[in-house]
Amino acid sequence: MFMSVVNRDFRQAVEPVATARWTKNVDTGCDAPLGHGDLGNGEADLCFLVTRNALSGTGVLGCDPVVLPLDGWALRLDEVAFTVGAVAHRHTHSGSGWRHLVAGTLRIEAEHDTTVMSTGDSWFEPAQSPVRAVALQERGDTRFVRCMVIPLADVGQSTFKLQSPKDADLPRLQITHRHFDHVVQVDAL
């Protein structure tokens, strides 16, 4: 299986296994989501598609293979908002998925490289891959939309796991706004 993130320019005829859509709303601050999440096909600023085949071409911002949990899975769509100076200390998630930066600048420190993401950039994080994120803007919020394939055991639960117990006492200034966890049942994969 593959997960792709696509924008409004994507026009290919595909039969996705699952689709999450996100459309930007008016920014009312970090305490509220910046957009609206939904399931299924249709117009949206961003779509995250789980497909049997890799996607490429116009409108495809990224595509990577995903390993689906054997005991079932759900599609999670959420947003993470960082206030000025916020840091997501080194952590992992139990699910793989795409992130797309919709506001601000964010330094992503992965296991083998460090990348500065700007508004409009997308990146893929495999499950259980350690990462640290630092908001770099001097004013305003930094935000990304995230779609992950998560194990059923994590439906309704946080997938965030700190890598160092000493980081548990550090401030956590980022705010997560969950749009949905959607259990996906597929026959004959």
TrEMBL record:
SUPFAM superfamilies: RmlC-like cupins (SSF51182). InterPro entries: Cupin_2, RmlC-like_jellyroll, RmlC_Cupin_sf. This is Cupin domain protein. It comes from Octadecabacter temperatus. The lineage of its organism: Bacteria, Pseudomonadati, Pseudomonadota, Alphaproteobacteria, Rhodobacterales.
